């Protein structure tokens, strides 16, 4: 049985806001994704964004086979104790030499912990789908993408991107919105695989995010008005049950991204990797 620690990236206030708006708290979403891949898991969760919370030290972390970082509504460049605690904890995870995986915010925390840079994307927000994510040569050879096509779409929601990585980090995937859609790097004997998109998300969850950010999506110019944004959210929510030919055509959603098992393949490859490393 694999033992995995989930690191929730949101504050208690943000978690409550997510639930009020019909979303799933990030750590619960991650737990559901991991258990959808395999049921024989032992999962624990920590909340480093919360003041006064207990966090395991390197010795305690050694009991885990892997550490999975969730997304978050926070922005690295804003700083503050709720962010500083997460970056410091990530460095502890590296020193414990436990393999880490991070989605979106998780990738950004990992990058920051090793001296990289995260900034607001000048191209704007990427939400719904990250289109045409392209594997680099390093990505095609990396076990994270075993069984994946060279180009694919992925569920995504973010307005920040990784803008600089240390020289020894490897960019595994990119697209027109982000030079780093996936990266692999290590420090102090610990390795980190991170993706900017959300393999753990369902379409229901990305629809909830779209509803949560409706005003921002209109302000960003992605939709003409809130009604149009809410209509798009309704369409995306339907894709968990396949949608209709019309909605699939309107949203440009192909069969591969509709297949949840295919969307979870990156996480499955990571879990296979950490199991083989035990």
Features:
Rossmann fold, nine-stranded mixed beta sheet, globular, alpha/beta, 2 domains, 278 residues
Could you estimate the helical fraction of the residues in percent? 25-40%
Note the run of SSEs as H and E.
EHHEHEHEHEEHEEEEEHHHHHHH
> How many distinct beta strands?
11
Q: What coarse outline follows from CA principal-axis ratios?
A: globular
CATH superfamily caption of the largest domain: Class I glutamine amidotransferase (GATase) domain
- Name of the top-level CATH class of the largest domain: Alpha Beta
The largest pleated sheet is described as: 9 strands, mixed
The structural domain count equals: 2
Give the spatial strand order of the biggest sheet: 2-1-3-4-11-10-9-6-7
Quick summary of this structure?
The protein is built from 13 helices and 11 strands. It is an alpha/beta fold.
Give your account of this protein's structure.
- Helix 4 packs across helix 5 (105-113) and helix 7 (203-212) packs antiparallel against helix 9 (226-237).
- It is built from 13 helices and eleven strands.
- The strands form two sheets. A nine-stranded mixed β-sheet has the order 2-1-3-4-11-10-9-6-7, sandwiched between helices. A two-stranded antiparallel sheet has the order 5-8.
- A hairpin with a 7-residue loop joins strand 9 and strand 10 (182-187).
- The longest helix has 15 residues, at 81-95.
- With 278 residues, it is α/β, with parallel strands linked by helices.
- It has two domains: 2-201 and 260-276, Class I glutamine amidotransferase (GATase) domain (Rossmann fold, 3-Layer(aba) Sandwich); 203-256, no CATH class.
